[in-house]
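Quick one: structure tokens for this chain, please?
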Amino acid sequence: MIFRFLILANFLLTFIIKNNIQAQAEIDPNLLSVYIECDECDLNFIRKEINFVNFVRDRNDADVHIQSNDADTGGGGERITFTFYGMKIFKGKSDTLFSNISAHDTQEKKRIKLLRTIKLGLIPFVVKTDAANEIDIVFSGNYETKLVQEDPWNHWVFRTSLSSDVDGEKLSNSFDINTSLTATRITEDWKLRIAYSNNYHEQNFKYNNQDITNVSRSHTSFNHIIKSIDEHWSIGAWVYIHSSTYENIKFKTSIAPAVEFNVFPYSDFNSKQLRLNVYVWNKFHNYYEETIYFRTQEYLTETELSATFDYIRPWGAASISASASTHLQKLEKNRFRFSGKISFQLVKGLTFDLNGGYSAIHDQLSIPRSEASLEDVLLEQRELETDYDYWGSFGVSFTFGSIYNNIVNPRFGD
């Protein structure tokens, strides 16, 4: 039985190797080798539609490395930036193209727009290869001047949502209801956002013929207005309104003027940013229960300083953020936060990802004075006092084998 199994296994292995060698032989080594990083792209679609290059799975094997970055636009859509980095014989050559995606574009229209932008960006590199002899350029438009229609909404975009989750079994069930409404207006000079969200969460349990119900509610409105000053400076104002049974906050309102300075020009946001922010929060808190500081309401002034560094390069990306805040009336009531993430390729095929953060917490002013019951703790009905919290994750991956990534086989999904 074992002997037959070994013969069958050897036959299958020989068949697989033979077919992979044949598939490898179909690769044209004279074509441009391209490595692409694009979370917004349908990579199977792109590999199928762009047949004049070889797609490789490691940037060190590429002649061109394509990296993308996306940002929200004023119309509720996206502006996706593609940076084309030349490698090997093209080292030192680079280009940047943009693809504007409307909020009303379907997924099909979006992927066609991205495909077109990638094709255009590859042309200056492809013309230096043998594939240039097989490429034709077709212009599908016309020469008539197209007038820009007046925007009846004046750049305002509105979104509303309603969602609900339900699950249960014989002795327990739960459901959530979430609603939100957002209005945004983004131009080169102004950035406005008005947002409201509501959450209702209910859990029901049966234990020893006893019915136990846990209900939590929260309401949040987060609004801001930001004015561009120049390539480095911006000013803004924030209005934050919040209530939460979990946090013992019956009503909370916070208003803050703010200033931001970007060490690098804002136009470089696709490659690097170093933003320094200053906020001065003026707060009023009203609590459901008397707090551990014997307060049912209070007025506070809080200052917050933060710094964020983002760096995007062909080898990967890194982001580091740090902030500190304190209440002017109670300087000992403060909070320090640090977080970071990095993803980069150590050597060919070996990628490392790390992210995490830590907060030193000394400003939990809303903790109820009454002692939390076991039911409160287990059902997470109320916030508990703590001095810190932390989170983190890391991972490595190693890939080896064929450098090519041209073939698309969609059977049974990805």
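Residues 2-134 form a domain with the Rossmann fold fold (CATH 3.40.50).
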